[in-house]
Structure formats: C-alpha cells, structure tokens
Amino acid sequence: MTQGPAVEAQSVVKHFGDGPDAVRALDDVSVTVARGEFFTLLGPSGCGKTTLLRCIAGFETPTAGRILLGGRDITDDPPNRRRVNTVFQSYALFPHLTVAQNVAFGLQMLGRPKAEVRATTDRMLALVRLDALADRRPDALSGGQQQRVALARALAPQPEVLLLDEPLSALDLKLRKEMQSELKRLQHETGITFVFVTHDQEEALTMSDRIGVMSAGRLLQVAPPRDIYNRPVNRFVADFIGETNFLPATAHAGQIRLRSGEVLGPTTVSGAITVAIRPEQLRLSDPGDHEAIPATVEGSTYLGTDSHLHLRLPDGSRVVARIPSLPQAEPGPAPGMPVGLRVAPGALQVLED
Amino acid sequence: MTMATPEMTARRRRARAGWLLSTPALVLLLCGAAGPLLVVLVFSFLTKGGYGGVELPFTAEAWFRIFFQRDIFDGTVSAADAHIQIFWRSVWLSLATTLITFVLGLPTAWFIATRPARTRTLWLFLITIPFWTNLLIRTFAIMEVIRNEGLLNSALLGLGLIDQPLQILFTDTATLIGMAYVYLPLMVLPLYAAIDRFDMRLLEAGHDLYASRWALLRRVILPIIRPGLVAGCILVFIPALGAYVVPRVLGGGKNMMVGNFIELQFGQARNWPLGAALSMMLLLVVMAALLVYVRAMAQEGRDD
C-alpha cells in the first residue's frame, strides 16, 4: 500500500474567470494519495472537490501548481494521455453501444489486441456481475446497473488511479449502501487507487482509508475517518462530519469550565475557547450526581435505536445527547425534568474557530 | 362495463372527428401526389403526339428509349450514351453536393448547437435567411459572383493570383457550387437538431477513455447524431437529384441534369412519353437510394 504516491497535487490553484470576479475554485491545494489507497474528497457542494478531481482527470488545467501521477508530471497532458479513468456522476455511458461495447471502449482506444479486449471485457463484466446483460443497451438498464457498467468501463483499462465523481448520488438509499460495499470489494480485488468525491459524510466515513475535507477551495484536514471524526482540526470539520454540540467555554488552570462555572474536563490550553462534544459522548446520570453537569430536558426526538435528547445547560446553551431508546413501556425523560450530564473521558474537542 | 360505454363512445366520436378534420389535407395530398403520378405513369406508356401531347396505342417505346437508341437509317440498336451520361452526372453531382454540405454543415451545426441559448436562435435565424429570396434570383446572384468578369475572378485577377479569368460558369463545378449553397441549410438544420440533443458529457467520457479527437468524432459523435445525419443527407440528395433551376442557370445548356432533360422532352423535343418515363425513372432512383439508406440503418442497428 505504500510503494510511493499514486497521485499528487502540488499547490494546485484553479481560478474560473479573469480579473477581480474570478472564482477561486481551488486555493493552493496539496495532497498526496498513496498507491492502493481509497481516498475520499469530502465537502459541501462548491467546495472545489470536483474541480480537483477534474484537474487530475485532465478536464481542467490548473491555474498554478502541478499534478503528478506515479511521480510523473502530467499537468499538461490531455485526458486521453493520462492513465486515469473517471466514473462520472451522470455515468455518461455511450447510448449507441451495448454494455460490453461500453466496457471495451477504453481498451479499443488503447489499441489492445482483439482477444485481450474481449477477455478483459468479460472479466470486468463478471467482476461487476453484469455478464448476463452484456448485449443490452444502457437505456435498458436500471440506475444501479448503469452504475456498474460505468465502473466496469472505467476499470477495464486498468488505470493507475480511478476517479469517482459522486457516483452514488443518483441511487436510492438501499442501493447506495449496496454499492458502497461493492465499491470497497472492487477496490480490494483490483488493487487500484480510488479517489472518491462525495458530499455525504457517512459515505466517506464508511468507505475511505483517508478523507480530505474541503471547504471554499481549501483542503482543511487529511486524515483517516476515525481521526477526522474524533479529532477535527476546526469548527467546520467538526460541524460537517457527524453531529456536534458546540459550547462556549473558558480554559483556566488546566480545566475547561462552562461560562456558568461547571467543570467539563481537563485541558492544557487557557483562555476563551469553543469545545465540541459529539451527542453520543454525553451520558445521562442522576440529577443529584455531583460530578455531573445539571441540565434540564427540553424535549426528545425518537430515531429508532437511539433517541436525541434536547437539553439546556446552566449557562443557557443547548446541547443534544444521543441515548439508547428505552423499551416502549417505559417513559423517557419528560420535558422539564432535571438530569445530570456526564462527558465521556477524552470526548472533549477544543477548537480554534 | 356499462360505466365505460359513454366514455368509449366519446372516444370513438373524438377519433371520428380527427379523421374528419384531416380529410381535406388527405384528399389534397392524394390528388396532388398520387393523381399526377398516375397520369405520368400512363403517359410513359403512350405514343408521342406530333405536336407534343400523347396518343394511343400503348407502348413501352419511351422506356426502351431511356437506355437505347435506334439508328435512323438501319434501325440498329445501341446504348443511349447521352441519357446514361445525364443520369450519371445527376447522381455524382448530387452525391458530391451531399458530401460538401455535410463537410461544411457539420462544423456549422456544431457551432450553433454549442452557443448559449440566447444567441443560438439568432444563428438559426441567420441560417434560414437565404430561404427568404427566390431561388432563381439567388442562383443568378451566384452567377454574378463566378462569371468571368464576376466578383471572384476580378478579386483573383486583382490580387495577381491568376492572369486569366477562371472559366467556372457553365461547368459542372458551377452547378456544384450552386447546389452546395442552395442545399446547405437543409443539411445544417437536421444536424443541428441532432447535435442539440447530444450529451456533451459523452465527449469527456470518451476523452477520458483514451479517445483522440478524431476517434471521438468517428466513434462517439457521428454514430449518435446519425439520425440527423441521415435526415440531412436525404433532404439534400433527393432534391439535388431532381434539381432544375441551378443546373439550368449555372451549368448552361450542355451540362444538363435529369431535371433539365425531362423539361426538354416536354418542351422543345415534344416527346412527352420519354419525359414521363424519365420522370418515373428518377422516382425509382430516389426510391432505390432511400431503400439503401433504410437497409443500411437497420443493418448497423443490428450489428452494433
């Protein structure tokens, strides 16, 4: 997995338009993706993640910076000279070709011998479990099947890097879950480096080896999913990934306190800060618990396995705690009820704004 | 079932109303197309009258005369080279016109289809401007451009590129230039309609899959816009085959196409049956061409 980088972006800048109204789609982005890695670019729409992908694919030329593929500078190569293939959000399957012909297209363009084209096409169709539909046209396939064709088509020429531009966004939830594990399986079986673009944080967390979180053309944090979730570098990342409570607090003499004085936990910094706590890191205890923060229940939302409990703290700020749902017969904490609130050890995130 | 009856009656009444409303147009089409065609077919099997017109008895002489001629003195039969030459010229000029309009029309249609929606309408409007002027006048205008003392030759002489005016007028080249000009919009419009529906994202997909620009054109664009391409070719080839005004004005008297030759039979030559037979022959060639197209389309549809 670490035989050197598969793809590298070095200080990539991309402007759309000229002069003062130019849009900075990418603002000095540098990232290295290792060989065989499943790397995800995550961010809200318009954050530049697709632009970065298109720069790697060759559809956009960076205003400044370099793109390296396997250590070789490909910044000025056209898309057809890059050993990189893309799975498009719209699939962009050729409507005049059958499934098999779609998959064979790249290999034919590379001038591979006929026998090899046929063998590889068959292998790819088997890999995505579409052998039975080889002679169908794309318009006779379901969305999920079209998705598989797009995958097989992009994998067939065995690119050094496979780029996936929000490929699952057009699928319904159930199919999306299926394709997520399918993608992981394909990546595992082919050993090809995947660069995956999505705005869906759950998708990013479940599938990736590492995630790069982007916002407004900048890469904010690159880390494995666990670190992104538990150690977000700033408020944006903490807010974008999962659900988080933000609390204004003061750090003094090694302790973080709410503005009303209750101790939240230990720290090494000092001054006015913001702390982030994940809802599932909050535990309920008795109202009389001296170590707990006294809170008042304001309401709850039933989520199935868990419930969201909306609470008000002594300083007036509101937090959400995620607690296991009680059996139906037992009544949950009712609005107005006083409770104690404990923070799981190590769950406090001190954030720079 | 009883509930459905009034609804069904209403539907039937509506269908009947539809038929009734379209009857005038159907009658007009039937009388205007089938009627005269039948007359022409009958004429082609009659004997020519002394001063034009047709007389009995029925004979296949006119059809025979399309391909063969009898020596006036000894009655020996030989191929009618002049007729075959005229047919041949018509076919190759029409094919060349189709090819030229395609080569010129494809980039034009692509250009228009890729403009922003606002300016696209303007470009389409500009393409249709030639239709506003009478064909005859436009053809004479071309004559003014390409004749020996015309704009083109004056310009070339003035620039010192030639020292003798080019004899373009009254040649096949003149006819070709004229036909390409006249039929170009008929190629551009269906191509535009096809390209307008073309999903430009497929170009990125193809480019991503190692296709060069040329391969994209051949393997992605052309197969997908084929319906528009075929429509354009038919719209150009068929009228070009029967062209009359352009070869008459620009080709001069000698470089006749079938249309001019047919006119000659009904006019000066006073051989109505031959004119009628030639007309039917032209129709058969057109139908054969269409059939080849349809076959080719269906064949490729299966092969893909």
TrEMBL record, chain A:
Oligomeric and partner information: The complex is composed of two ATP-binding proteins (PotA), two transmembrane proteins (PotB and PotC) and a solute-binding protein (PotD).
Enzyme Commission number(s): 7.6.2.11
Membrane-spanning intervals of the chain: none
InterPro entries registered for this protein in UniProt: AAA+_ATPase, ABC_SmlMolc_Importer, ABC_transporter-like_ATP-bd, ABC_transporter-like_CS, Mo/tungstate-bd_C_term_dom, P-loop_NTPase, PotA-like, PotA_ATP-bd
SUPFAM superfamilies linked: MOP-like, P-loop containing nucleoside triphosphate hydrolases
Membership in a protein family: Belongs to the ABC transporter superfamily. Spermidine/putrescine importer (TC 3.A.1.11.1) family.
Functional summary from the UniProt entry: Part of the ABC transporter complex PotABCD involved in spermidine/putrescine import. Responsible for energy coupling to the transport system.
Gene3D superfamilies in UniProt: 2.40.50.100, P-loop containing nucleotide triphosphate hydrolases
EC supergroup of this enzyme: translocase
Annotated ABC transporter domain residues: 7-241
GO cellular component: ATP-binding cassette (ABC) transporter complex
Keywords noted in UniProt: ATP-binding, Cell membrane, Membrane, Nucleotide-binding, Translocase, Transport
A molecular function GO annotation: ATP hydrolysis activity
Keyword Cell membrane: yes
Reaction(s) catalysed (UniProt annotation): ATP + H2O + polyamine-[polyamine-binding protein]Side 1 = ADP + phosphate + polyamineSide 2 + [polyamine-binding protein]Side 1
Protein name, entry field: Spermidine/putrescine import ATP-binding protein PotA
Top-level taxonomic group: Bacteria
